[in-house]
Design brief:
This protein is α+β, with helices and mostly antiparallel strands and 419 residues long. It contains twelve helices and nine strands. The strands form three sheets. It has a five-stranded mixed sheet with strand order 4-6-7-9-8. Strands 1-2 form a two-stranded antiparallel ribbon. α3 packs parallel to α5 and α6 runs antiparallel to α7.
Length: 419
Amino acid sequence: MFENLGHVLYHVLIILFPILFYYQFLNKGAIGQSTKVNYRFLGTLLVMLLCTMSFPIEVTDGSYYDQKIIPVILAFLYGGWLTGLVVLAFMLYYLFILGESSFLVMLLNYLIVTVFLVVTTRVYRNMTVKKKILSISILLLLITITRALRFIHREEPGEIFLAVIVSLITWVSLVTSIMIIENLTMQMQLQHQLQRSEKLKVVSELAASVAHEVRNPMTSTRGFLQLMSQDDNLNSSQKRYIDISIEELDRAQSIIQDYLSLAKPNKHGMDRINVSKELEHVIQLMSTYTSFNNTTIRHEIEDELYIKANKDEMKQVLINLIKNAIEAIDKHGTVTVKASSSRGMVLIEIIDDGVGMSPHQVARLGTPFYSTKDKGTGIGLTISFQIIELLQGKMEVKSEVGKGTTFTIKLPSKTSASS
């Protein structure tokens, strides 16, 4: 074993180098999707698996060491259950080709590991980095114990020490891989937030400097148009033109107001509000709009869900998202609004079965001046993202072209007035 220390380090490099290469050159989006396969990440794991299995280290006569369990674990935890099953199937098939003598035992062991990983995948994503490392360490410890028991059953106590050394090296490689993935993912998220903040800063400064000067002449123009519309000497066409001009001025006024809201977010007036009642009020308010657009709105809202927020701003966010969901539906669709509490968080889901969006469109949501609607400015959604961030919450978007979109708002729950 110790004579092959250099080969052991090569195996560690086999695990770490593909991850670094993936994040440097291949990563085009976040990993961790359970319904879609990230083919770049899958390819990276398969290369990692193929290399570590093709060049094993002979620990003792007839006993070989590799780190094939690491790509399997990373596939389930960071690629989703579908990616994990693909990597697991590839590994088992390759073992069968290589003529593994204890293939059935390996199959049983990895099926048990798979069940554990599938069950814990969703919980794993919401853990802190320390808890993630602790949970994986417990899994590897259980695997090491089962190996040791197998050697005891075979009456081969000398192999136990080697099994512990092998497991320790595997643990170091796996923990290092997790740290690299978590740190690089966090850096990418921070970089994305920084770019978005810079864009918002530019738009905010522009709005603050221009909006006031633009509103004054617009107000005067609107007033004169209203006076002109009362003139009895105007024909019907001229009155219609004036009405259209007033409507367009009102629309421009609304856009300017959005810019002012973006430039000066309200950090005051925060209070503990019953978001369940606010949702029901907004749904009732939007019922006329749904009837006009031939859509149906359903809701599943738990009672007494409390958050700390500005009541008017929270209502603005809900109206923006529900209105967007209604407009995303062509004909006779359904908008579903759900609200529930989970682990100290209030979850609000707004689901539509409309046209959906591509991953590129989803990535640009919340950016000023970007909208998927013909007459949209994107400011309303930008303000919604900003308000949720101000409340120390998070807004997630999942969408698929032709199948619809789901907006999920996660906000800290305020179960009591003193919390």
